[in-house]
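Field reference: sequence -> structure
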Amino acid sequence: MVASALPGEGKTFTSLNLAMSLAREQDCRVVLVDADVAKGHLTSLMGLSEHPGLLELLANPTVQLTDVLVPTDVERLSILPAHTYRGNAPELFASKRMEQVMAELAAMSADQIVIFDSSPVLSTNEAQVLGRLMSQILMVVRADHTDRNAVLDAIELLERPKLSFILNQCQVVLGDDYYNSSYGKMGDEQQ
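Structure field:
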C-alpha cells in the first residue's frame, strides 16, 4: 500500500510510477488498486470514472474481480478503479468480502504484485483499515512540506512493523566538488 499522512504529498503519482516501473519487468504483473475512494484521483487520471470498481466489487457479491479489472496500454499492468464513493467504505474495507478480494488478487498469478493507492492516513480512517490487511506500506513524505508531527501521527495510526518511506520532491543540490571529482583509479592515473 502506498500512503501519505496528508493530501498533496504525491502518493498517487508515486503509486502509478511504481506500478508502471514494476510492470515493465519481464517477470512481474501488477494490479494497481485505487483505494483512495473519496478522491479517486487515479481513477479519473486514467479516464475510468464511469467504470465499476473496488466499491462495487465489495458491496455487490455478484460483481466479479474480472468485471472491474481494467487492462492498460502498459503490458502486464491492470487498474482496479475506485468508482463511486460510498460513506460505508471503511466498513467495506473491513469486511469478509475484502478479505476474499485480497485472496483472489493474490491467487491470480504467482508473479503478481498488488499496489493499493490509499487515502491519506490523517484525512480518513480508510487507510488505517486497509493498512491492517497489507504486508508492506510505503509512506510518501513530501520534502520541505510535510509536518514531522503529521508523519509521526500517521505512523502511530498505521501500527505496521513493515513501513518504508519515500521522500518525494526532494531537491538535491550538488556542490562544485561533485563535478570536479574523479572516479576510481582511472581518475588517479590521469593526474
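Note: The longest strand covers residues 29-35.
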